[in-house]
């Protein structure tokens, strides 16, 4: 570790300094995503416009930030994983577009503005999600900035496919829909979250790790040990924000989980116990990074920011 390509470490408590780094990553992603989206003037122009509306409409870019923080931890440059981050974000946005549809969560607001099916129409929103998912795998297969060997590209495609499918976010959404109005225990809720949210967050760390084919097994296990609790803590924090947040800050409706009778940590455990669960998961994640020493400060700082956020 400690490659000359890695940036200077960040102190985990230096959230102001990390916020500046996060802004630079977010700006980088806006440019990177824009370059990889189809020309809005090309046929079918309306579909391309809807893709750009959905992808370039803001967002925290948490999954790309995880990819970039992992790259720095491993001594890689952001350019080494930029295409990976774009592919993951395209899948994430596709899932949001589809989740917002009337057949799913039926949401009118996303990132402070009308959801894709409200700004365009339901059929265009379905096609937008389909096209973004296809674009994600095209990027992994063909993007010239990804210098990984062919076998590594195949592994990245496999990993993103697994994170997107029935054992990942699609399966998690199916479980979520089936669970509305039902009583689930915490183990069942966490299984749902591990798929719907956790799988893509896990991919955001382990796909960059796959770009280092000779990575020590112990360090790979450390990254896996970090991202599992962080993925769950992130979702619990989201559920807490649905209870404690406000529309102006979040850019989406609040109280939706309660209205739909969705089983969540706050609804089952209560708010204080859910906040304590987040704290314990955060501590577990940080312990997992100990084998990296100071090299993992970008991931530690990102974990601090994720779980202190209010939006």
Give a quick set of tags describing it.
single chain, 311 residues, mainly alpha, Farnesyl Diphosphate Synthase, two-stranded antiparallel ribbon, 15 helices, disordered N terminus
Give the number of helices. Answer: 15
Alpha carbon gap, first and last residue: 33 Å
CATH class: Mainly Alpha
- In the predicted model, the low-confidence regions spanning at least 5 consecutive residues are 1-12
What does this structure look like?
With 311 residues, the protein is mostly helical. It has one domain: Farnesyl Diphosphate Synthase. It is 69% helix and 1% strand. Strands 1-2 form a two-stranded antiparallel ribbon. Helix 1 crosses helix 4. The chain is globular, with a radius of gyration of 19 Å. The model is unreliable at 1-12 (pLDDT under 50).
Would you kindly provide a brief summary of this structure?
The chain has 15 helices and two strands. By secondary structure, it is mostly helical. The radius of gyration is 19 Å and the shape is globular.
Secondary-structure blueprint of this entry?
Blueprint: H1 15-36, H2 45-55, H3 62-73, H4 78-99, E1 109-110, E2 113-114, H5 116-119, H6 122-142, H7 150-164, H8 169-179, H9 186-210, H10 217-244, H11 247-250, H12 256-259, H13 265-269, H14 271-288, H15 297-308
Antiparallel strand pairs: 1-2
